[in-house]
Structure formats: C-alpha cells, structure tokens
Design a protein that fits this description.
homodimer; 413 residues; alpha/beta; amino-acid biosynthesis (chains A, B); transferase (chains A, B); Asp/Glu/Uridylate_kinase (chains A, B); ATP-binding (chains A, B); kinase (chains A, B)
Chain lengths: 413, 413
C-alpha cells in the first residue's frame, strides 16, 4: 500500500470514453489498497479552444484574465472524472488549484508554485477518497487565479507528490516510457528502464517532449521518484530517479536528443576588446530573447567572429538587434542561418568515461557531417550541424554508443 | 454619478462581437461617471454544452461535481469581458463567485446566497475599475463551489446591488421591458413603465420568463430598484420598484400572465372525512411534486371530488400515487387532464377596487370560455381553462381591462 500521485494528460482524458477508462484504471489501483491523488489536464483541444475565444476578443489578451479563462479547462476535467468515479462506486472529490490550495507567485501564465497546503488533501485521503486535483493552476497570495504555463500539469503532479511525500509520481502519457532517442527517427530506439533526473533534464531541455523541464527539476530537487507510463497500455514505463539508484551496468550514454527549433546568428569582424561579448549579448537578453549556445572564434587581426543560437521564432528580431549593435561597435556583418539542427548525447556515465567527445566527433566525421558549433556540460555534449544531416547524425550516434535494441522491439510507439 | 449593477445574460455575451458591444456599452456608462459592477452569465449554449459533457460521463451526475463544471461557463465570460474592456482602455478586473466572496449554503445546484463580502469590490471600484463578477455561482462555508440554479445570474446581480447598496440593478435581456402580456399572443401588448415587486413576482411565478422569481424576491426584500432593459436597443425599459413609488394613475390590472405547463388531476368519490385532503396531498408532496392550485367540491352523499394541478412533467407520477391513495381511502376514480392552461390577471390595484373578479369571469363567459378552477391572492386571480381557449382568453382579458396600447407600438419585440 502506497501513496501515489498520478497525472493524466489531455489525450488521456480527451473524451467520455477515455475518462471512463482512466476511472477504471484508478479503480484497479484503489483495489490494490493504494492512496491516490490524481492530477488531470484539460481535455485535449480545450486549452486551444479557450485561447481561440480570447484571441477573438483581442489580439493581445491581458494575462491575468487569460489565466481566469484557461484554468476552466482543468476545472471541467476534475468534475467529470470525480463524478465518473463516484458513479462506479469509488469515493472521490475534486479540487481546483485554489481549493487545494496551491499557492504560486503572481507571474500570470507562467507562475511558479511556492507552497502547497496538503492538510485538506490528507484529510480526504484519510477518509478513503480519491482526490482529483486540477493541474496547471494555482492561486497567488491575493487570491488571483494563476496558471503554470503549458505542460504545467506535470509540475502540479510532482509538487503534490513532494508536498505529500508520496511514494511515487506517475505521469501517464501517450508513450510507454523514455526512449534512447525518438523512435520515429531511429527504429531501434529502446525504452530506458531507469534514467537520472539530471539526464532527463538535459533530454527535456534538448527537445524531448516526454516531460516538462520544471517537473523534472522539481522532482530532482525534492527527490520524488517519477515514472513515465502509457495511459492505456500495461508496462513498467521509465523510472526517473537519483543517480545512486541506478544499476552498475549503466551505459556511458543514456540517450540522444535533438531539435530543429534553433537558428544560428553570426556577427563577423567584431573589434576584439574587453566587454564585447556583453555589448553583443546584452541587448539580445534585454529583449527577452533566450540565447542557447555561444561560440567566439579566436581573434585574428584584432577582430573576432561571434556566433550564438536562439529560438527560430526569435531569429528575425535578433537579427534586427544585431544589425544595430554591429553599427555601434563597428563590426563587419551580421548573418543568420535557420537550416541547422542540434544533436546531443546525454549520460551520467560521461563523468567516469574519457573519450566520449572524440568518439562522437569521429562518428560524425566518418559520415561527412560537419560540426558547426559545440557545447558541453558535465553529462551532455551538443553539436550544431546542417539540418539536412539530422536523421543521419542521430542514427549514427545511436549505433556508435551501442544504444540500439538487441532485437527488434515491436512494442514501442 | 451612481453605483449601478448591470447583469448581461447569455445571449448578450454569446459571441466575441456581442461581448465587444457590451464592452462599448459599459464604456459609455463609465464615461458618464458611474461606478459599475457587471454580472455576466455563461455564453449562450455553454451551460448546455457542459451539462452534455457530464451526461456523457454518467446518467445521474453528482451535484457537487456538476457545480464545479457548470461554474466554468461564467468564469470564461468574466475573463473575456474583462480583457476586452482593458483592451479598449477601461480598467477592469474579473471575479469568480468564490473570489468575491459570495457565500452560499451547500445546496449544490440550487444554493442560496447567505452573505456577500463587498470589501474587495468596494476597493476595486474606489480604484476606478469596472468589476466583472461571475453570475450564478458562489462558494459554501467549506470552500466548495456552488451554483444558484438556472437563471441564478439575476439573483447574483440583485444580491450584489443589495450588498453594495447600489442605486439600481439593471438586468439586460433580449426584451425591452416587462409587457402587459406576451406580445406574441396579444399584438397590442404594451411595455410597462413601472411595476411593483409583488406584481412582478406573481407574473414570474405565473410563467413570465423575463426575470427569475428569486431575483425579484431578493430585490423586494432589500428594496433594490430593478430595471429590465434590452441589451442592444436604447430605451428606458421597465422599472420594478416599491408600490409607493408608483404613480396615482396606476391601472387596476398591470398584466396578464399565462402558462401551459400544468396538468389537472381529479380524484372522485372521496369519502368526506376530516383529514382527507392531507391523506391525498401528503403522499404527492412527499414525492417532491409541487402542487399549484387546489379545489375541493362541496360534499354530496358524504363524498367529495378533489382537484389540483401539478407540472405536466409530474403528471404520470402523480397519477400513480393517486391511484394507490384512491384504493387506500376508498375513492371512486382518478382522472388526469393535461389539455389545460392557466390565465391570471395581476395588479396591486385590485386591493382598492371591487368587482375585478366578476369582471374577469363575465369577460370570459361572454366568449363561452368555461372556468375549470379558480384561485385568488390579494393581487392576482388565476383561472384554469381548456387549453384551446388560451389565446382567446388572454386577448379578451387584455382588452377588458384596458391594457391595449392606445396606438400601434411598432417598437416592441
């Protein structure tokens, strides 16, 4: 008998039939004697419908009022799931974020959880009820409704698990676990039994859509065992846990992540004086544009080239800023390139293994894939390459680091 | 400069265009210097959509969870209207029932308002904001979301006006006021300038759909001047107020109400012993069936006939109960008739005028309309007639009591 927090996403509760399936699943867990807190998202499509309503009203909707509207999506789902459970004989009760209460800061649209009052939840659990909590939402100190941003329901689940000191937080999704890489790109990708918080964090920040970064951060910070599972298929999923809990046979590399969301900006012929990096990147950051990788070339003739990546959506704005900066500091030219992709290898095993980087570079060069930028962390190496080589690079690295499944796994998604 | 509470129903906020129109209307009032609290319903169709979702989940949805779901309808509208106002430069803020806080009892689906905390609203008004409040909803002492029942937004408007001691509560609808009778039945029906709370109450309980009974009761109890107006047409509407505020020229009869919602049940040959009425009606009331009019015939041969009306939806259930009762008390037979209609004349003027009833009966008999049942109150006389004579009866009484418009009013709905 354990206390488990289970989170079901929008697709898992996207119709009356799906909600009924989720209810039966919960009934099964309840029959095993577990205490259950269920976090749900809005029914799939609902959040977009609500955003559409707001956009019809005005082009740039006020964010406080947007949160008032968006939070209704999850509120409908908690009511539906709770009434379904009651109708099949399982005592259940729904709670909005404000009712719990899940207190956040006042950053509407991207609020951060500050405190969870677990007393009411505990009392409902003690009374034998399944508690259904609206994901993605909270309330600030003044009683305003807030939302945590897209995918915030995962964070709600982890935060509740931390507050309640739950035995496990289970995230039910439309995949049956975390894979060594995207199975749509590499057929032989394998489901991982276990992965560390840190690795998951790198994978998530590198573009893996399985879990929200903030949820993984939160889970790592409070050491909440997190499990990714398929909503409607049986299976152990992938457990995300502390490094110490991993088996000794942990491979060097756990997975290959990639994304096509970035664009590369280069400013050439920059006079190489102290503080030039700040002069270039300061105005970009000031415009709230997030910078990912940065490379500065060695100086030649007292000038240098400066390259960095931003989200493709920000490319045009960044170029405008850079052109102004180039004039101010006397740089030669500004160039942008969006036909790039980032490929990363991730693994805590890197810490104790030398030569991982050179193995990666060698494998890529063997296929004539030119590396445009490199960035490393303790457990990750990322390279930027020409976008057209992306699939080839991922497959090459997947096999070079021996991640391919021993036999064809016909069960993966 | 006045403090006005304005309530806009589901049709008035049924689309982005309508919400924009309402926002412009509010902007106009604000420009006149008024303090405004706006109560809104769910967008038209939304409440039915939400009920549909719940019905897809289970046949008999839990009422607490139903209220969690239903309350989202108004929550979306307050967000949309508040963001629209802000986008056209009017400071505005939305409040759910729980945020206000509008405290109710715990009768989910038909909760009654017990207390309104007006402090926050007052502070927002003092800060120059238009406050948008979700109608139809509240929160009980334990923090559960409640709803006031269909049409409850009118009640929210009146209750807020009472709590804030507003100068007027304006109910915007799809009609331009209260009419002497339904203009679809009598072309010469006139809009009333003023009508008393009591008269409005009788008309509402007799089937006039313009205002919710509870809202009128509430307004009368706290003497909140209530005005019914058209959402998108200019005009003074109808003011509902205390009797003392009416002009001296008040006519004897203010309006003719009618409905086709009732069925007539008769139990014949009942042994006329003390307590027999209770033996018949007790089991009906115990089954939660509301009884409207009751007539007991004079006794003949120690037996009597007993007739009463119930809502047509309850007719079959009532007949079943009566057949059992008839066996128990030794009555002869039970008969039901749904082809009836109720017509009522309403007016505070009745108090000071004799002969109103005989004038009514004479007018009906002149057209061969047989009266099946009669019921009277201080300011109302209702008769049950054969349904097929309904329109004729209404037109006859409308003209007999001189309610017809002096000339053709081409402006009414």
């Amino acid at each position: 008998m354990a206390l488990i927090v289970q989170k079901f996403g929008g697709t898992s509760v996207g119709s009356a039939e799906r909600i009924a399936q989720v209810a039966e699943k919960i009934k099964g867990f309840k029959a095993q004697g577990h205490d259950l807190v269920i976090v749900v998202s809005a029914m799939s499509g609902e959040t977009n419908r609500l955003i559409g309503l707001a956009r019809d009203i005005c082009a740039d909707p006020d964010q406080r009022e947007m949160d008032v509207i968006l939070s209704t999506g999850e509120q409908v789902t908690i009511g539906l799931l709770a009434m379904k459970l009651k109708s099949i004989g399982i005592p259940a009760i729904s709670y909005t974020g404000a009712q719990v209460r899940i207190e956040t800061d006042s950053s509407f649209g991207k609020a951060r959880i500050q405190h969870i009052d677990e007393a009411k939840l505990r009392a409902e659990l003690d009374a034998g009820k399944v508690v259904i909590v609206a994901g993605f939402q909270g309330v600030d100190g003044q009683g305003n409704i807030t939302t945590l941003g897209r995918g915030g329901s995962d964070t709600t689940g982890v935060a509740l698990a931390a507050a309640l000191k739950a035995d496990e937080c289970q995230i039910y999704t439309d995949v049956d676990g975390v894979y060594t890489t995207d199975p749509r790109v590499v057929e032989s990708a394998r489901r991982l039994e276990k992965v560390t918080f840190e690795e998951m964090l790198e994978m998530a920040s590198l573009g893996s859509k399985v879990l929200q970064i903030r949820a993984v951060e939160f889970a790592g910070k409070y050491n909440v065992p997190l499990r990714v599972l398929h909503s409607f298929k049986e299976g152990p999923g992938t457990l995300i846990t502390l490094e110490e809990d991993l088996s000794m046979e942990q491979p060097v590399i756990s997975g290959i992540a990639f994304n096509r969301d970035e664009a590369k900006l280069t400013i050439r012929g920059v006079p190489d004086t102290p503080g030039v990096a700040y002069k270039i990147l300061g105005p970009v950051s000031a415009a709230n544009i997030e910078i990912d990788m940065i490379v500065q070339n060695v100086s030649k003739d007292q000038t240098t080239d400066f390259t960095f990546t931003v989200n493709r959506n920000d490319q045009r704005r960044t170029e405008e800023i850079l052109r102004k900066v180039a004039t101010d500091i006397g740089a030669r030219e500004v160039a942008g390139d969006s036909a790039i992709a980032k490929v990363s290898i991730v693994g805590v095993g890197m810490r104790s293994h030398a030569g991982v980087a050179s193995k990666m570079f060698e494998a890529l060069s063997r296929h004539g894939i030119n590396i445009l930028m490199i960035s490393t962390s303790e457990i990750k190496i990322s390279v930027v390459i020409d976008e057209k080589y992306l699939e080839l690079a991922v497959r090459t690295l997947h096999s070079a680091f021996e991640l391919d499944a021993p036999e064809q796994d016909s069960d993966h998604i």
